[in-house]
Amino acid sequence: MIVEKRFCLDLTQDDIKEWCSTRGVESYRASQIYKWLSSGVTVTDEMTNVSKKVRAMLEEDFIFDGFKVLEKYVSKIDGTTKFVYLLHDGNIIESVVMRYKTGLAVCISSQAGCKMGCEFCASAKAGFGRSLSSGELLAQVLISQKIMGEKIRSVVVMGIGEPFDNYENIVNFIDRITDPEGPGMGARHITISTCGLVPKIREFASLKSQVNLAVSLHAPNDAIRTGIMPIARAYCMEELLDACREYTKVTGRRITFEYSLFKGINDRRQDADELASRLKGMLCHVNLIAANEFPGSDFHRPDRRSVNDFKQYLESKGVNVTLRREMGTDIMAACGQLRRGIEEGTE
User: Fold this and answer.
1) Catalytic annotation on 94?
2) Which of the following is catalytic: 8, 20, 94, 284?
């Protein structure tokens, strides 16, 4: 029986301790190795306090070349950096590092491709490869941080893929990145975004995590939502909002609703009015996004006046709302623009 090698960043500290014991390696090496991995080191030669013999054993047993930078793009507008990563099996993903006043934030992918099929999203056009392991989720943070040469302060899982379609690895990733003996990131600096897998929202609520939850709503009713988001055919809006209410009740945490404005589709005054009515009384916040276009898309952004009118109307109805700052649009790094390949022929 052939046992497939594990990617090095999939190893927990306990895994490394067990490996050391099995391989006859001194126990103190485990903490050294874990410290290196937790700082994004995936080249054993950089583990300077680990013997060559142990490094050779690590390379023999685990994958250390499973996460390569294929391309790096830097926005001339705002310095946003997009990384295109090549995984050990040939799959390609994208991650985006953004600079805010509070420091660096990274938007990571949860899958190589996406099965959800949202009409307005470039990721849906790329086909589906597979879900990412917890270590591959972690690698996007740690390796991006290492390349940037600056600590990443927050993580949003809003890149390619549907996080709750990769639920177990997402939960493991949260455990890994918040490990005080590892990266040690605070849970409140992590945001998970879902298009609305209702059972998983309820399951996530039961964890009572301090991680932030964002839900891609993008419509005020089922008629519009089912036309642009296939997931809405499985879970109607009332089912989704009921799960969201349960989440806020169980966790005490405010939920964020992502709402991309598409010209002539969901940006009318009546849409704003219906949205405000549906969200009335909820512990929530609406993050408005002026649609980010990509080649071949039939979805277009409204003009600035329409966007501001929509925002102001929601505010007049007592809805907490912000307009998301556009970042990295010149390198196709904005929300909804990430895709699995660099060019059409790479998938």
Assistant:
1) yes
2) 94
